[in-house]
Fold these 4 entries.
Entry 1:
Amino acid sequence: MLPFMVRKRSEEPLREREMIEIIQRRLEVMPRMPVPFGDDVSACDLGSGRVAVLKTDMLVDRTDVPKGMSLWQATRKAVVMNVSDFAAKGVQPLALLVSLGMPASVSRKEVEEIADGLNAGAREYGAYVVGGDTGEASDVVISVSVFGVAVKDKLMLRSGARPGDVVAVTGFFGRSSAGLKILLGKFDVEPKIRRGLVESALMPHARLREGLALGKSGAVSASIDSSDGLAWSLHEIARASNVGFLLDMLPVAEEVQEFAKANRLDALDLTLYGGEEYELVVTIKPRLYKKAEEAIAKAGGALIRIGSVTAEKDMVLMTEGKKCVIEPRGYEHFKDIH
Amino acid sequence: MLPFMVRKRSEEPLREREMIEIIQRRLEVMPRMPVPFGDDVSACDLGSGRVAVLKTDMLVDRTDVPKGMSLWQATRKAVVMNVSDFAAKGVQPLALLVSLGMPASVSRKEVEEIADGLNAGAREYGAYVVGGDTGEASDVVISVSVFGVAVKDKLMLRSGARPGDVVAVTGFFGRSSAGLKILLGKFDVEPKIRRGLVESALMPHARLREGLALGKSGAVSASIDSSDGLAWSLHEIARASNVGFLLDMLPVAEEVQEFAKANRLDALDLTLYGGEEYELVVTIKPRLYKKAEEAIAKAGGALIRIGSVTAEKDMVLMTEGKKCVIEPRGYEHFKDIH
């Protein structure tokens, strides 16, 4: 029996972002908080120009895990989504804590799978799990907290984009959305393409090497990851930096183009409004663009230039002479993943 | 629908401590980890003799919240139980992150109550909530992570108790257990006593000032909080320090004595094996006992001497000529709180 919130309500259900706003408004704000509420990570001053970087992100199987994803993959993903936020800020994750809620029926083998997924995710990015807590819950709940240390002035926040800056991303978009669709429905797709797309949804990778390289380069004016989709990420930078964007290129992955065509889906939709992408979306000072490109190439990655920052607050994509407004929407949760 | 763990199983359900052991065995251990697995907090080296102190502890309404406790109280308690672990290590909590899982039916008023409970708990102990995450879950899940900074050599671990050390606690025990019993059943209890006992269960307080004072005094050889009960805490220090205990005094609260007598309950049971207590259990070098006492008095608290550390691994209580073995049991969860 749940002691709280068992009644059906007449009010409209609250959206996740509304909840976060309600909570933030009622919290006393830490004086001289190094990173404002609403950025990808939080921070706490360590003195001598350094900050502790902190992040927590929770995965709940009922809403965040598509069918076809194993428990090991889900647990690893819970780590990756946290690491991705560190990547966007240019910070190395050092230590992880994990709170696990599990049904009483959990088996030894399942607990082992969870432990292995946690360890795999952490070690993949050079971090270690150093502690945690377990408890009984109706769902599988995996709440990961990450700790790292950064030089305060080197942190890439969402708020530094200036008109004239170049907008770039670390990879092509749409694979995860397409992969998720394939996992959940019947789509016409070649086995070769299918495998790659499904893999994107089940085994996401955080762009940590790229983020660390960009952070060191000093070329980035604003940065965010794209776990809520490309459109949402752009709108978040726009809001935090008080600017607009003019994109002249849609970074759609080739396989996504093919998949969309074969299934009469809109590739633009998959690219802009899909969620659970883990590319970085950054703005770069034009005179330092080459430096950023070289830094990321050295780290084994690539920068794809997709447009520029504008003083006007519009959010527009112009391709092949067609103008299209980029809407502020994205995934909040997989509401319909089962 | 839950994607994982929906089947009824034939195996015996795993106990929380078994799960933690399974997980720890499968994790790669951070080299030179400043605090071993299994202590109250985790840590990560910051250089120059300092460590980042990290802790996460999760509250799930279905198993951790007794009837009669409000959502505000439950949320505040989720903070207090984390702060209590910091208190036991002598570390000031600075910043909190919170992962909230809530049913879709949650109302605006309930979210406000949660926010206020978080803020109240944090501010009560000089900390701030600096970030978090929300998601949909079947239960109300409140996972709090705490960050602080400590001088590594000043951390009070579980492992430093030596034969001859004095065992002391920061207050009398049994109030929370008695309060919980009153909340859940029909007991014979005077209104005046009832109020205090129920308050202990609903509004626990972490002994942070006491813990910080003890930490600074340098007199403590081992320390732990008592959220799993006094007996369990003693056994944990014994295990980590490879020692035993001879107690010559049972620190039972006067009201608990009365409550037990009126209801034919065993006061010893309530004192040793009740859970959700937030007193500190410490061992102190004998020649520094006075120093510890003075430090804690200055902080507004008190030390109650209950026995001494022994080289023999037994765990014994000797009062009024009677000898009684203290068993290694305590609350893992409120399995039957509703």
Entry 2:
Amino acid sequence: MFKTIISPSISDMNALRHVNNTVIPHWFESARSPLYTLFNPSHDLTYKKWNLILVHMDFNFIKPVYFGYDVEIRTYITKISKSSLTLSQEVWQNGQLRLNGNCVMLYYDYIKQESNLIPDNIRNKLMNHLISSKELEEKNRLEMKNKKENKKEFVESD
Amino acid sequence: MFKTIISPSISDMNALRHVNNTVIPHWFESARSPLYTLFNPSHDLTYKKWNLILVHMDFNFIKPVYFGYDVEIRTYITKISKSSLTLSQEVWQNGQLRLNGNCVMLYYDYIKQESNLIPDNIRNKLMNHLISSKELEEKNRLEMKNKKENKKEFVESD
Amino acid sequence: MFKTIISPSISDMNALRHVNNTVIPHWFESARSPLYTLFNPSHDLTYKKWNLILVHMDFNFIKPVYFGYDVEIRTYITKISKSSLTLSQEVWQNGQLRLNGNCVMLYYDYIKQESNLIPDNIRNKLMNHLISSKELEEKNRLEMKNKKENKKEFVESD
Amino acid sequence: MFKTIISPSISDMNALRHVNNTVIPHWFESARSPLYTLFNPSHDLTYKKWNLILVHMDFNFIKPVYFGYDVEIRTYITKISKSSLTLSQEVWQNGQLRLNGNCVMLYYDYIKQESNLIPDNIRNKLMNHLISSKELEEKNRLEMKNKKENKKEFVESD
């Protein structure tokens, strides 16, 4: 699991004083940086070198994210296929899972415009971060079991 | 169907010279504006009045979106439930479906923090834009049948 | 003058229900697209071809920009130097100048990492859009003279 | 001085593989968070409570910001007036000042739509972070004196 701490910025808040949905893809992109380094240690953003392309992303909004409290982004690898990998990412704030989502990335050759097999040396490193969706769900269920959100902190009356 | 034309901006392009994945949620949000007007004719962004909340969104990246050519965002209503609706949104450029996605919104009371039944007068207006996912797929298949992308326009060699 | 019409999106609004300051640089970037085309007709975003780099930008926030009303972005060229040009850009909404700003761009060689003289064929095209800051100020003063903002539209009480 | 560390994200990079100009206002907004807390300890984003409004911002782009290296945002208060304050903010990467800018914020009553005098208890806290523009320039000159950027890290040839 990769952990990233972010302080919501004023500019992340929408008219209903929640972090806006369009902000989350940026946060998840930032939280994928360690994974990009794993695939591209030289950070070389060229067609010849860069080797990942996003083909899918989804987001489930469970509870609002508020201003004034840090959030923790957790990034898990939940599936490794021949030439693609699936990530599960979560936003936690004040001990509560606020939202989660998945994305699928292809190991990709930008010049030939086709996907490639993920090499073994990278695959082995990815395996260290692998967790099944089921295990992840159970882990989160246990973590939230005894936590209650302090409702008073967030009154939406004006 | 709601149609929105957008010219990709330089600031929408990423290091691989495609429109970046984080831009698309903004484009789709903009393209939902006519729907927000349908639900909130007075555009009153307050807890007492505003009545929609996003609970899910997903995106499938089929082909890259490039700089220098307008894109067309198409927004369809593909499902109307008791207190929620599902939209399908697409990005077309140069006659090709570049990416699509769905989102689910709840008809929502921000003060009580609970969903409500969509009123009939709004439901009736929504029905005018309803199309099933299957019909939409078939419609798109036919539209792209005889169109070929001019590959020469987009050479990713440097 | 280049004119661009934009509908503020829900995701452009901040917690005080104004268009957020961080949105404006995006809008101005979009509104500079015709100028980019003038300098780069082939839209070739490569180090060898692309020839403009931003070195300064500033913004003056005069009145808030609200949701529910289109805005007009006006882009003027207010200065053409040997190897740089200065743009003045404005956001108008409901007949009022809401904010303005300037930016300076260099005609630039990304490979040699140095500025170049603006070629005459481009310079001649730029001249068509040239207006002095003073003329622009006077033009705007006259335009707003007989217009009064309908204050009732925007009550910030909740 | 307030210090904020940010890792540039893939989505912050533009087609020329620099951090895009539109990203910097977001970074500076984030880096102003400690100041917002100083003015608004309860983080209450309502018209009745929130008390700051941005009236000006400017940015000078000195050197590009690249992917793969953390940046340090430094936020100074360079002027405190009766009802406004001026901040100077800088982006440093690899020991080099990459860009800087200023912003002016009013101490503001959103209900009455007018500025107010900054109260003494806040003013006293602000004084701790005050530095003149001249001192800041001299401080930066000394810091960069013996540092040379490793040009080899950033070759813009493809």
Entry 3:
Amino acid sequence: MLGEQNLDHDGAPAEPRHPPVIDKPVLIAEPLLPDLKDLIPLLEGIWERKYVTNHGPLHEQLEAALADHLGVKTAMLFNNATIGLIAALKLFDLPPGSEVITTPMTFAATAHAISWNGLTPVFADILPGTMTLDPAAVEKAITSRTSAILGVHVYGTLCDVDAFARIGASRDIRIIYDAAHAFGATRSGVPVSQFGDASIFSFHATKLFNTLEGGLVATPRESDRKKIYYLRNFGIKNEEEVVEIGINGKMNEVQAAIGLLNLRLVAAEKAKRRRLRNRYIEILGDLDGIQLPAEQPEVENSEQYFPIVIDETRFGRTRDQIYDALKARKVFSRKYFYPICTDFEPYRHLKIVSTRAIPYAEEVKMRVLCLPFHSNVSEDAVSVIHDVMHARP
Amino acid sequence: MLGEQNLDHDGAPAEPRHPPVIDKPVLIAEPLLPDLKDLIPLLEGIWERKYVTNHGPLHEQLEAALADHLGVKTAMLFNNATIGLIAALKLFDLPPGSEVITTPMTFAATAHAISWNGLTPVFADILPGTMTLDPAAVEKAITSRTSAILGVHVYGTLCDVDAFARIGASRDIRIIYDAAHAFGATRSGVPVSQFGDASIFSFHATKLFNTLEGGLVATPRESDRKKIYYLRNFGIKNEEEVVEIGINGKMNEVQAAIGLLNLRLVAAEKAKRRRLRNRYIEILGDLDGIQLPAEQPEVENSEQYFPIVIDETRFGRTRDQIYDALKARKVFSRKYFYPICTDFEPYRHLKIVSTRAIPYAEEVKMRVLCLPFHSNVSEDAVSVIHDVMHARP
């Protein structure tokens, strides 16, 4: 079953080395970068125009291309997703101090963006399986001070968008999605950014589509464009008016140039990752106590991460043991997300609202592991993972 | 007196055209950019390492070079000065809602950074002459809720740092400087970042030293380094601890590469601007009703801007008339700062605390004009400015 073909070249399958030896560390992620030869002419244009930031022509071009690629009315580039998320939360004039319900199973920036807006994060539990925010826990967490729900399409797995749409519609609650992991995801052909009031994508180096650092605020309403534009650029409406307490969220032209070129590479990278996903499912699918990424049949996956959940009682070894065993063979997985937001000093005093006695998030944080997931994960690395996972303890 | 030499070449002085005609618009600022031929090898290194952000080697190199160049213990790069200023204000754990006294004669970001921290901006008047925060007005504005003074070295002109040091020392008040305009300024050889508790520089494209977008938080204490590092990177202390409500303020490697190369160009650009400054003084010095930039004999100027203040009653024409007359001849000056922060919708309800009946800031905002100030301002452009300023109304 193993080693039938090498993923990293197209010729005849190479004879795999047994046991495979990794020379160069295999990282959890690797940035997709365009050919420098393609970038240089774009840089020459920027240098000639001397128009290097403040919504230059490449910035405008990338923004239009992304609106098109993601199938969304309003798509506004940011210098990173955190600043985008901070601005997006500001978009809705949520009452100061009001509560925003979110998941602890996310990167710290999700909670921080709430705090920077003078809002109060409230953590609700996640669902087994998808590891996304549990609508029942959210219902339980809602108070008269709740102004928004900030769901996270964690690992690219979609939140229960229908449940949150119902919750949002029945009360005056905004639904916002941290879509940092969900670039290009769709459900039954509907782009992920069509769900909720706003979706924030990350273009950090570790993401499928990257601009080194970067982000995007997408909303299904053309009418949001103006205010996000102001918020991104210090609240400046025109030469004489500043109408919002804005921020500097501008992406420069060089990063926009890299984005324009990377956008052409996304489809091929995604196809390679899809093959890697299938290889992982092939080598791990028969293991007792290993939960593979949630299947969402109507969802076109963003191919961002490959998380597994290791039930140590059934599997016989813990997540940390697997992490260490892989690391010893130069394959770097990631305990992601561990710790979770409610473990962090600024949020440690907050409980996770759950329908269970012990929140599922507390359980899964000890069990979840993301495997290396990018096109340079060789078949040798897959072999190493196979060997480590199938070794008898 | 005019046209004795052309600033833009080194040969024999060209015969000036009379009246000079500007073919290409002369802008208020132009970004200093390194030769692309020098940048490409650095990009090749980044592409080979695939280490594109998160404190990469060029980032570390630039940070060290800037600490050295600016003569400061702690120098931390940011993706822009606004995010730097937001993080710097967070550094001191100022009580929520406490008051930060600042100048209205500044870019909106100064006030916004206070607001984003959940602090209350209090605007105090500026001094005639230097146009920096007036210590007497600041004293008048201090209440029991004052936690910090945020001075701005506006146009590169230094604040009365001695007065603010005294105020800070006599009370529990932090002194922070928005040094966006003051890159490389010194007083009696002492770097500007040695004054106060923190100084924030801007590396935006319009600044003498630029990284397209960028900024730096500098403090005179080595011990601040760690906390600023955490604040810049989501509050992450290590793989398992998040200790602050941080932000994403990271600069990527490509911008760091541009910064490393631009740093080599700063001295020559500064020398050219110094000559331009002297030319402006030459052609404007004899005009009644024109106030030239404040002289601070002990200060090594940052050569960032050249603001003049036009007293229309003595000069016979208004600032706006001069602006329009220059524009008609393709020379773009800037009404900077006009409007001022207290004119902006988020701060309009706030009064400027002043020792005068009508704050000086209200007066000068109608009179101040920044002339184009960079090495590509030709002698023809200087001639146009001379002609416009000397024309009889």
Entry 4:
Amino acid sequence: MVGRKKTQGGKKHVILVSNDDGIRSPGIKAIASALKKLGEVYVVAPDRERSAASHSLTLHRPLRVHRVGPREYAIDGTPTDCITLALKVKGILPMRPSIVVSGINMGGNLGEDITYSGTVSAAMEGTLLGIPSIAVSLVARRNFNFRASARFAARFVRLILENGLPKDTLLNVNVPSAGRIKGARITRQGKRVFGDVVVEKVDPRGKKYYWIGGDMLRWEGGEDTDFAAVAKGYISITPVHLDMTNYSAVSGLQHWKF
Amino acid sequence: MVGRKKTQGGKKHVILVSNDDGIRSPGIKAIASALKKLGEVYVVAPDRERSAASHSLTLHRPLRVHRVGPREYAIDGTPTDCITLALKVKGILPMRPSIVVSGINMGGNLGEDITYSGTVSAAMEGTLLGIPSIAVSLVARRNFNFRASARFAARFVRLILENGLPKDTLLNVNVPSAGRIKGARITRQGKRVFGDVVVEKVDPRGKKYYWIGGDMLRWEGGEDTDFAAVAKGYISITPVHLDMTNYSAVSGLQHWKF
């Protein structure tokens, strides 16, 4: 377990909040506000939307840190950049944070979304740096009501502050649209089946261009998946492991004549 | 197993090659050339370096596809974009590829590098699309000699074409600098310990900026890791699973009062 510790002598927890929708997103404001009762909340987030940024790091250019309010910093980089700079640049945080909270994302991060998601990646970076981390997403397409999901997220953060998390593991939380939440389930990562995802169009000069989009057709994987939980009105909590080794494949591969 | 099939009636394999160093990288030229004896090689790669692009997708702007040579296409996007467009845009590939090969990357992709790496992400995207996929990196900092690693990579590609790969699993291959290769080992993902990774400087106008960099201090994880294999002069072959669920954590979390 990492991060399991008591606060000493009334010393408050420092809570680091980021996201991939950008610092002006209502989702990050909702969660930052809900977490204030648990500790000192610092928001360090991208200065604009960086959805699908995945776990990318900005290595080819310098980054700027702008203080935009009390304990609020905007960075012209990815969610991963934000966590890295929050931890490494002196003067942002007063001490090492007790937890990294990423979200609330406007839209779900289910199944293999976690490999693309900037929201989950901020939690990944926290985990890699040895800090318990949680990513929270609201599975909706419009009418984002962040109030209920922020309240649940705060409850989960409190549990993590009390219990810590297993090593190299983050929690990926997806909350169904408000109004029909039946409870929470521990789930495994499901699998999407996508339809055509590339749209071909012609620009004003007659040249072709392509836009990646497309919709999920269905999901696979059974009743214990993240998709199934959310579809039935439950909050999905998936423990995500950063050791991606397929251990069950190791022995089979040993027989190959490499 | 996916992708295990015989070529029928002398029909050639289509091999899709990409990378994150960009289409002009000597690493991609070396591997494309070495694979020509195994099938029809199509190169679809970023038009410039996209290192540390991770599994990011370009969703906020359109993408262009430029044919730059016979069976060679440059795209103004990430490695993940390249695989997506290669598969979805009509007229690039004559048929579904038998395998996706990403690399040869100039530099290792060891331990948690795989969560940042554009090279590995191209193989991830191939795997998500149900195509056996392999990422190949040369663990060197200068004097990149791609000849030996391309030869080994071609041997591994042949093995995958014959045997397929376990479901949702890619192979992450790291080749030590040439001249001292002792063989190949099936490994697990190790763990880096980083030093300070952010450099603070002042720009000509007197304003601070930050640049992410820094060096690995050491690695952890024992003799069966990717780091250990490469350090001892062996090629490291790690089976990487896209189901990131930490199954061993599920039962413990069931007891939490979510």
